[in-house]
């Protein structure tokens, strides 16, 4: 049996030679026949010369050179396809994982018969040395992979993995990512195919001069999780059918509860002038949203026109309305990519936008609760407490991250300056005040004036839309709003107002989105791909 160890190497001139020597020592101890492949990936620091020199002096070491960067995953894939081994191993050059585990890694496949074996830093028995910030980010990332992609693995990114040759060669051509996410995608796909994976604890110490750029690569990795999650949902007609049925069931259940005749009676009393004003006001909110994102992107060094920014917002909001997976952020990044603006930069801007959206919504909700001290409305704050506590916790975490946000989203660090933060916060508050005012105008059309309760209802209803259960949050939005408004007004009126409010906002969004798609010459099919 032959073991092939692949060392992906990009600008590793300082430690490549020592890494090869160390790996050889431990491979010799295993007793297996082996080869070491240096997958040198377009290095610019002389790594290619060092790799060639090592290879020329040792017949067990093979140097694979690429003039252009293939990415870590691309380099490993190429090496695996050219390797002679029955067991193929990928291992980081920094050798952060204690090499005493190498024989255990190989035997998991050669002796125990597993298809894949991986070292893990996140099992209880693992012993690791790494900064708290990176440990927290790793745990959060792996939790999201497990939660969203259904993986049973605890640590997807530890650079210490072994594969049966026939297993990995079947998988690699289906892997779309060619860089850091490659490891995660391989493991997720392997589990979906039913392959057996052994995950065992290791001793691990973070190496120096890591190639991972914390902020940039964190955003990129999260976007790849979302990409795989979205692909899985799009490939499943059952999920789409379920989401539409769920939305319909929620709406019909609410309508049945309040009574269809009550809804028709309420509709007949509406003042169309207020409805028209509400429609015009909500349409104007897209200019406010566009101006806010234009400002954010200008601070990131990519100024765009207000019209283009507003169009990109319209496209992203439209995608959120028509898909249960809410791919609006990806859609906006795609639109900006067409203007040669890096996806990572757009996601940095979106991260800032989302943070201030969250802060604004919670502030407005709490102001509403304070205002609703009248005992007539006491049930509404109680109904909302569970939702708000979760949101407040998230906002508190964000506020504690203010001094490191520039590290997490490196390109967005200027936005944490006081004046910039204040402007974005004001813009975000304006966006959500317009959203609240639209619903308030709809209720005014029925002769009802309860602005504080409307503010609470709209805030909580928008929080529930974060859960990607139904297209555009249809059903969950109406349920939350009806529940809160019905604590003060007739349930039939509450439900009717919720239906009109959400339908009006969605119809305007779709109308503006179609105009934007036409103006930008983009098809929805292009975005979903």
Walk me through what this model shows.
This protein has 529 residues and is of the alpha/beta class. The protein folds into 2 domains: 2-131 and 154-209, Spore Coat Polysaccharide Biosynthesis Protein SpsA, Chain A; 237-528, no CATH class. Helices cover 62% and strands 9% of the residues. The protein has 21 helices and 9 strands. The chain has helices spanning 16-30, 47-57, 72-82, 102-110, 132-149, 165-171, 182-192, 214-234, 237-258, 260-267, 272-299, 306-322, 328-337, 343-371, 379-400, 405-408, 418-444, 451-464, 476-485, 491-520, 524-528, and strands at 2-9, 33-41, 61-66, 87-91, 116-120, 127-129, 160-164, 197-201, 203-205. It has a 7-stranded mixed beta sheet, sandwiched between helices. Strands 6-9 form a two-stranded parallel ribbon. Helix 2 (47-57) links the parallel strand 2 and strand 3 (61-66). Helix 11 crosses helix 14 (343-371). The radius of gyration is 27 Å and the shape is elongated. Residues 396-412 have low confidence and may be disordered.
């Amino acid at each position: 049996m032959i073991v092939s160890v692949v060392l992906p190497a990009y600008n590793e001139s300082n430690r490549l030679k020592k890494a090869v020597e160390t790996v050889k020592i431990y491979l010799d101890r295993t007793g297996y026949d082996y080869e070491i492949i240096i997958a040198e990936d377009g290095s610019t620091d002389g790594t290619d010369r060092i790799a060639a020199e090592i290879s020329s002096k040792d017949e067990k070491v093979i140097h694979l050179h690429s003039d252009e960067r293939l990415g870590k995953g691309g380099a490993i894939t190429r090496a695996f396809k050219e390797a002679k081994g029955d067991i193929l191993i990928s291992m980081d050059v920094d050798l952060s994982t204690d090499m005493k585990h190498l024989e255990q890694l190989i035997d998991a496949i050669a002796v125990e018969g597993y298809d894949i074996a991986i070292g893990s830093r996140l099992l209880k028995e693992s012993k690791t040395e790494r900064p708290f910030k990176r440990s927290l980010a790793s745990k959060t990332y792996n939790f999201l992979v497990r939660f969203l992609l259904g993986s049973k693995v605890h640590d997807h990114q530890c650079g210490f993995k072994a594969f049966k040759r026939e297993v990995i060669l079947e998988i690699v051509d289906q892997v779309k990512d060619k860089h850091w996410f490659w490891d995660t995608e391989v493991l997720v796909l392997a589990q979906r195919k039913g392959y057996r994976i052994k995950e065992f604890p290791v001793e691990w110490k973070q190496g120096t001069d890591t190639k991972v750029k914390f902020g940039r690569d964190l955003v990129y990795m999260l976007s790849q999780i979302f990409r795989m999650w979205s692909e899985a949902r799009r490939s499943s007609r059952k999920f789409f059918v379920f989401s539409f049925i769920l939305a319909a069931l929620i709406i019909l259940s609410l309508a049945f509860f309040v009574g269809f005749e009550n809804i028709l009676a309420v509709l007949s009393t509406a003042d169309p002038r207020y409805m028209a004003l509400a429609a015009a006001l909500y349409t104007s909110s897209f200019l406010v949203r566009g101006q806010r994102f234009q400002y954010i992107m200008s601070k990131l060094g990519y100024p765009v026109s207000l019209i283009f920014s507003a169009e990109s917002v319209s496209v992203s909001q439209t995608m959120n309305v028509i898909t249960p997976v809410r791919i609006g952020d990806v859609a906006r990044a795609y639109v900006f990519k067409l203007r040669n603006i890096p996806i990572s930069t757009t996601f940095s801007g979106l991260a800032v936008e989302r943070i201030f959206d969250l802060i604004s919504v919670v502030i407005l909700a709490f102001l509403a609760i304070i205002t609703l001290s009248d005992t007539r409305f006491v049930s509404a704050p109680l109904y909302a407490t569970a939702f708000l506590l979760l949101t407040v916790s998230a906002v508190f975490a964000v506020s504690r991250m203010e001094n490191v946000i520039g590290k997490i989203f490196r390109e967005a660090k200027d936005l944490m300056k006081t004046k910039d933060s204040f402007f974005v916060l004001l813009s975000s508050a304006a966006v959500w005040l317009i959203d609240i005012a639209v619903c308030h105008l709809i209720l005014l059309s029925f002769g009802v004036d309860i602005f504080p309760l409307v503010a609470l209802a709209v805030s909580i209803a928008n929080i529930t839309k974060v859960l990607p259960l139904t297209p555009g949050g249809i059903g969950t939005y109406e349920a939350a709003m009806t529940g809160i408004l019905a604590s003060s007004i007739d349930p039939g009126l509450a439900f009717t107002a919720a239906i009109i409010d959400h339908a009006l906002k969605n119809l305007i969004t779709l109308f503006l989105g179609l105009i934007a798609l036409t103006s930008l010459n983009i098809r929805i099919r292009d975005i979903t791909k």
